[in-house]
Amino acid sequence: MNNKKIIIMGDVHGEIRKLNNFINKKRPEIILQCGDFGWWPSFRDNVDKIAKFKNTKVYFCDGNHEEHSVLRQDGKVHELCPNVFWCSRGSTITLPDGRIVLFIGGASSADKRWRKEGVTWFPEEDITDDDIHRALNHDHVDIVISHTCPLHFSIDFNKMFVYDKIHDKNRERLDAVLKKYQPDLWFFGHWHTHCIGICGNTKWECFDYLGHTDIYFDYL
Questions:
Q1: What per-residue confidence (pLDDT) applies to 168?
Q2: Domain total of the chain
Q3: Are the beta carbons of 193 and 208 closer than 8 angstroms?
Q4: Whole-angstrom Cα distance, residue 49 to residue 27?
Q5: Are the CB atoms for 149 and 104 separated by under 8 Å?
Q6: Distant-in-sequence, close-in-space partners of 42: CB < 8 Å, separation ≥ 6
Q7: Domain containing residue 199: CATH number
Q8: What is the mean predicted confidence (pLDDT) over 117-127?
Q9: Which pLDDT band, with edges at 50, 70 and 90, does 1 fall under?
Q10: In three state form, how does the secondary structure of 25-68 look?
């Protein structure tokens, strides 16, 4: 089903003005965003001071580049400012057509060696056992939104500069989510490239970051 009212989007990295322009042009009802939204209230004006999303609701999972000290992983959906919803790890929403979307953010920062712990890098970026427990506590899931992806997804690493992302232990944790639900669709970002594939019954798609030359969004 091609529903132009719902958009899946890759990393935003705090480029809220670009996101505003995108929304004003495409006018979706819902955006499902795959982490690295860029929630850094300590380093810039809060998103609610510059976001003008009007009738568009943005739901995002956390990536590795967020201010994790202000995000509470409790399996719930939090409205951080009008029409901007952070979906903590293991939380779900139900789309207008009835499909259930599971959010499970988190990933390891390949650049953490150049960041300062507790200020620009947080160990809470990694997915925990509790996060996975919450994520597995559902009867059925149709779609998964994550930041990185399960280890079982075969990605062509030759086409991207990945630092040590290939060794991210969070990918192994996401395999448990894939194994339980075998969702119809799985979307993620993190890799700053676009690629697609199939793993068992699951079609997956990775998006580039907002405004880059490669594909950074698609319609659900």
A1: 80
A2: 1
A3: yes
A4: 20
A5: no
A6: 67, 70
A7: 3.60.21.10
A8: 86
A9: very low
A10: HHCCCEEEECCCCCCCCCCCCCHHHHCCCCCCEEEECCCCCCCH
